[in-house]
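Proteins fold reproducibly. Look at a sample protein:
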Amino acid sequence: MTFRTGKTVTALLSTLALLVAASPARANTLNQNVSWTIDRANTTTKYGIVAYGDSIYAGYNGSTINAAKYSAPTVDAEYLSALWGTDLVSVRRAKSGAVASDVYNSKIVGEKSYMQAASTRVVTFEMCGNDGLQARSSFKGQSGTCNYGVLTTAENNCKTYVAAAMDFINANAYAGTKLKVISNLHYPGFNADNVLSGCTDATTGAKVNMRDTFLPVLARMNWNMCATALQKGFQCVDNFAQYMGSDYDSNGDGLVDSEALKYVAGETQASYVARITGTLRSTLRDANTHFVSSSSSYDYIQSDDTHPTYSGGTVTAGLFGGTTGSGAPRYPTITGGKNPIWNQYGHERMGWGLSFFDPPSPF
C-alpha cells in the first residue's frame, strides 16, 4: 500500500472520522490493539494481564488512529504492578464496533496465543455492548408495531458468547493464570433514552418509553454475565453499579447506591431485574454526572454519550497499527487499594473495579 501525505491523508482521516461519528451504534470494527508495559524501577520481573473486547477495553475516543493509553485493563496493570512490585504488561486485543460473536471469534479464539503466554496472570474480557447498541438503534428506527425481537436477539447472542468465551478461556489460558474476570455493561445514553418510541406496542396501542424498554434487557444481560461468571470460575466487575449508582446513599436506605445496585451472588434473575428496574430504580443516574458525594460529581462518559472518559494521554491504535511501549507507573505506590483518581474518570473506575479482585501474589 502506498501512503500519501498532505491533503490526501487529511481528507481520508476526515472522512473516516465522519463515518465513525455518523454511526456510533454500528461502529467501524476497527482493531485497536495495544501492548503497554508498566515499567517499575529496580525490577526486571514481568507478568501480564490480557484483555479481549470491543471499544471499551480498546480505550476508544472517537479517533481512527489512537486510543486511551490507560483504558481499564492498563489501569489495573498499574494496580497489579504496585501490589506485586513487578513490571506488568497490559495486552489489549480489542476491536471497536465488534459484536459479541466477533469479539469471541476474532479476538478470544483467533488471538488465544496472548492468554497462553507463560507470563499471563490475569485474563479479562468484555463484550455485548455493540449488540445492545445496534439493537437499540434498530428499535429506535421502527415505526408501526414495535418489534421487540431485535432486543431479544441481542440478549440471546450475549448469553451464548459470554458462556462460550468463558469456556474457551478456561480451556486455553495459561495454567498459571490467577484471575479470570468479565466486565459487565453500563447504560450509555440513560438520559437521552427517556423519550417515546416511534413504534406502538401491539397490546396497548401506545408508544413505549425507550429507557423503560431497554433497561430490563440490559439488566438481564448483566445478570447473565455475573451469574455465568460465578458458575465458570470467573469474577464479575459490576460496571453498571459503579457507573450508574452514586457513591453516597441518595434514597436513605442505609446503603451507598453504587454498592446497593451490585449483583448479589446467587440472586435470581427475576430478583435482580426487579431490584434494578423497580426497588432501586430511583437511584440510577446518567454516568455523565457520576456523583461521588451529594455535592460533587465527575463525568464518566465522553461527548459521544457512550465511551468512558480517561486520563493519561493516548497511544497509536487503529488505522495505522497498534502500540508496543512502556512507561513508568503514574502511581508507583497505591495506598488503600485506590489511586488518587480512581473515581474521577470512567476508565479509572472500571480499572479499579478490576483491581478489586487482584490476587495478592503472582504465584
Q: What stands out?
A: Confidence is low (pLDDT under 50) at residues 1-27.
